[in-house]
């Protein structure tokens, strides 16, 4: 006869059964509505950015909820979505004629390879690697064009979901708070950390990208770089890549200009980009991003890779958020179920104040 102490209690069986049912239903919902996952993530992102202004308009200015929601949706479209979509659409438009683009890109690549080989006798790109690079760029341009409709669909459904979040924000937040199977302190902690992560990614990354893109565009126009507008879009997109960043765009352009015989302009552009564009990058990252949230570069790298695979261009923002949020959930799990002392960066502000008073 089994010892009663070793028997699984009926309460534990009910909890496990209910958890299994919830996970199965959640899996069914996510698998069948996977198309709308980027829309939901986008709606939550914009909601967090607009949350303070939404409460101000509705509760202090006494605006009608629907009017406040539409006003904030329009503002977010102009400030957040249109600049990102403009850059993406500009790249897609320029790469739209794949055959003509690839012909120009092949000439561009061959010119750089030939110049470096003639000066250094170093075969930086073997013929096999050059063919692979050309093939990869061709596939990217084709997929970018085909993804235009999907991006528009995501944006439309995102704003449809966002409207109901903004119209009744207290109800939306109460549903999330009561549904979370965590202590109230951990729910507050999770919300605060998530807010900082979203602000850093939704505000910080686009501002840094557009800022570097504009500064580099000025240099491209001054030194006569070919296709300055396209290079502006590519530089802005490349700025989200840590370590390499914008150099992945302007270095080949400078080499190409020198190979074409425009030595002074090529060297001048290289100096401009290293000094001015690099200074702009450091200035924005160490002022704006440090104030919002300090995100580890590896989070950004792997987040962008994952996000682009899952969500396309929108993944530039959602990918790093998902990586950071997953790590945050692991920390919250330890805080919820571990007896260890809570790490200082995970303590709530009121708990820190209390500890300081006791000391």
UniProtKB/TrEMBL annotation:
Species this protein is from: Chryseobacterium artocarpi
InterPro entries assigned to the protein according to its UniProt record, in alphabetical order? AI-2E-like
Keyword annotations: Membrane, Transmembrane, Transmembrane helix
Q: What protein name does the entry list? A: AI-2E family transporter
Q: Name one Pfam family in it.
A: AI-2E_transport
Q: Where in the cell is it found?
A: Membrane
Give a Gene Ontology cellular component term annotated to this protein.
Answer: membrane
Segments traversing the membrane: 12-29, 35-55, 67-88, 144-166, 198-223, 229-259, 266-284, 304-330
Q: Which family does it belong to?
A: Belongs to the autoinducer-2 exporter (AI-2E) (TC 2.A.86) family.
Q: How does it sit in the membrane?
A: Multi-pass membrane protein
